[in-house]
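The instructor's notes for this session suggest beginning with a concrete chain rather than abstract definitions. Hand out the sequence below and ask the class to guess, before any prediction is shown, which regions might be ordered.
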Amino acid sequence: MTTRRIIVGISGASGFQYGVKALELLQQQDVEVHLVVSPGAERTCVLETDYHMAEVIALADVVHSSDNLGASISSGSFKTLGMLVAPCSMRTLAAIAHGLSDNLLTRAADVVLKERRRLVLMARETPLNLGHIRNMQHVTEMGGIIFPPVPALYQRPQTPDEIITHSVGRALDLLGLDVKALPRWGENAHTSALPVLPGTN
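After discussion, reveal the predicted structure:
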């Protein structure tokens, strides 16, 4: 594969900002970004953010309609590094867990799994019912990675953007992409000087 490609899916869970941040961070990488946004995600964008969809899709190299099951990313012969779904709704999780390729986002995820590539799902829901947990188990057993965007408070973030950036950066780590300037534990003077908290050693 001469061109390194990655797929970003944005589904309708709360947290559209995670998908946008992924697109922003990927602009710093030498990768071709393929984007697919679900109709639910487009509604969430309007309800929760000030983004305009035109601004969002401009961050990707290639944008695919969610109902285009004939798109390049629906085929395993189209090589990619893998796929990040940020955020991943419980509906999308369930479809992926049970192989229901009913739109391009879930089909692309299914392809990534069958080709034994890396799939990272930033599952966004709480609390979880047993069905959610079982679907997470199914995806994990198929080789996917469930990555809830849990804040890394040990980094002492000062803004919501710092929290989002760290979560998305760590998710991109799992796809083999190194986000520059991402704070990492033990790699700066601040964290190396912190005392060990009681009960953590």
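Then share the key points. Helices lie at 16-26, 39-48, 53-57, 90-97, 104-114, 130-141, 160-173, 189-192. The chain has a mean pLDDT of 93.
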